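chain below, 140 aa
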Amino acid sequence: MLIADRRGAVAFEMPFIFAFLFLVILLPLVDLALAGFNYISAYAALRGFGQYLQYNQPTDVTSTSTWLTTVRSRANADPRYPISDPTIICGDNQTGCSDASLSPKYYSFTTTVTLAPMVLGYALCSNSCTYTLSYSERFQ
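prediction:
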């Protein structure tokens, strides 16, 4: 009985089903996947810069401007995620280093991630599609 009933209903319904699946399910998943990949890439850039800093500590913690310039040029950081606001923290008071006798304990820096969603702009970008990721690690 079903074999004899071939009126082409599937051929008529298929464009609607395909449009629904593509626009409502697949494109939002692509947006989420791209946002996740951008976040993971930015965090990997932060961790890579942090690993480089582990082995290249500043010699003079009171004057870190030349050290930061040297570290930024040699670190080969990802140009899509520029490192900004690097801070070296000495002691337990969570402030910058003012005494040369102190050894650096922490470093902290940030980068920004910019998303470009196709469908989920209202959900992922309420005010702006630029997010700031921070990273902090203790020197060994």
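Helices lie at 9-54, 65-74, 121-124. Residues 40 and 90 are 29 Å apart (CA to CA).
thats it, cya
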